[in-house]
Design goal:
65% helix, single chain, mainly alpha
């Protein structure tokens, strides 16, 4: 008699279930350290590939258990499939590897977050709280007694420029720190919409530690959307809009009396940004170099999407396309600074993948609008944030963007509290 064959799939299923919780926490740690590189390795990128490894382990664990994410998440898998075709067509170049990494990492981060919140919602909430305390704690150290803390482990860091741009925490620049806090706040609101201390800590850190203008503007936008979702009456909405605007403009001016009005002094960037935005909002868009550069990447990526429709331009074409077509947008765009990659999340997907790139924003918004009508109304701030923020200079593989999308896709609404 022959001995019965050993069933491999049940064994893998049992092992993956037994070690699922440590794998989720390992994935969370890789996202927490997504910009840190303590090893003598050069990845030619500010963002490190650790979330890809952590998310990959969780993904293979889910495959062993035959646990499949919903269609709203699997749209990202289809986009990744198209990205693999463009990667294969372009060959093994550094630009191709970095471009393809964005889509693979995005999918794995979203799937891992979706699975974690479905299986261990309490652990996922604790992870978000640990991340919030870690980011703010490191930022406080940098702002007070250890200005260079964590800077040695970052590929590029502005931690020394505390009086100008704010601190970086565990990121390469203050804007990423501020936007991570905002996305983290959005994910925390998905799980605990009535808990206010999350908002107090996050808002305080964005305004007083990060000081990044882009983060402050989107924070104001998010808070206004939060007011609309909770108080739909027109009077209350107008009141929330006015209150938030006055509050942020007041905070925006807190550095006026502390920053010398000297042409040789860069001053506080947040202060200068608000001062120009209040006095000349059109001039802020058309004369500020940083703002104009980011707008140029959005416009030129949409231009490339239209030129190549329905196909994409691939991963190595943006610098050449920018140089050829930027003159068509003058005088509105005056910054001529071509780069190898698109400084826009949605813009890069549309430029690189063409029609297939639209699956990325469709997936994000589908995840945010899932659930009952009451759930969709409660998620209005996250929906509008995902409608607008990824157009900015935020990589698709930014871990906290994928974590918010995964939280929206995986959360089962219970009693709001």
């Amino acid at each position: 008699m022959t001995r019965p064959a050993i069933e491999v799939l049940p064994i893998l299923d049992g092992l993956s279930r037994r070690f699922s919780r440590p794998l989720y926490w390992l994935f969370g740690l890789t996202c927490l350290c997504g910009y840190l590189n303590p090893f003598p390795l050069k990845f030619h990128s500010e963002m490190q590939p650790w979330p890809l490894f952590g998310g990959g382990l969780v993904f293979f664990s889910l495959l062993a258990r035959r646990s499949l994410p919903p269609a709203s998440v699997n749209l990202l898998l289809i986009a990744t499939g198209f990205a693999s075709l463009y990667f294969a067509a372009g060959g093994w170049t550094l630009l191709g590897i970095r471009g393809f990494y964005n889509y693979v990492a995005l999918y794995l981060i979203v799937v891992s977050s979706w699975a974690w919140i479905r299986e261990y919602e309490g652990d996922f909430l604790r992870f978000l709280m640990v991340a919030l305390f870690a980011f703010v704690g490191v930022a406080l150290l940098q702002a007070t007694i250890l200005p260079g803390f964590s800077g040695a482990w970052l590929s590029r860091s502005d931690t020394a420029r505390l009086t100008v741009r704010g601190v970086c925490s565990l990121f390469s620049e203050p804007s990423y720190f501020g936007l991570a806090l905002l996305l983290l706040l959005g994910a925390l609101h998905v799980l605990r919409p009535r808990n206010r201390w999350f908002a107090v800590v996050s808002v305080g850190a964005i305004l007083f530690l990060s000081r990044a203008p882009i983060a402050v503007l989107f924070l104001a936008f998010y808070l206004v959307c939060l007011g609309f979702s909770k108080h739909p009456r027109a009077a209350l909405c107008l009141l929330s809009l006015t209150g938030v605007a006055l509050f942020l403009l007041t905070i925006g001016g807190y550095g006026y009396h502390f920053v010398p009005d000297d042409p040789g002094d860069d001053g506080l960037r947040l202060t200068r940004f608000f001062k120009m935005l209040v006095s000349d909002p059109v001039g802020q868009l058309t004369s500020d170099v940083s703002t104009n550069q980011r707008l140029s990447h959005i416009f030129l990526s949409l231009h490339g999407f239209w030129d190549g429709f329905p196909g994409g331009q691939g991963f190595a074409a943006f610098s050449k396309f920018y140089s050829l077509h930027v003159s068509e947008w003058r005088p509105f765009i005056f910054v001529f600074f071509p780069m190898d990659r698109v400084m826009s999340g949605y813009g890069s997907a549309l430029f690189e993948l063409g029609l297939a790139g639209t699956l990325v924003p469709i997936s994000f918004l589908w995840c945010a609008r899932s659930g009952s009508p009451a759930d969709r109304r409660a998620r209005l701030p996250q929906f509008l944030l995902l409608l607008t923020l990824p157009w900015m200079a935020l990589p698709l593989a930014f871990p906290w963007l994928g974590i918010l999308v995964g939280a929206l896709a995986g959360h089962r609404p219970k009693n709001l509290g």
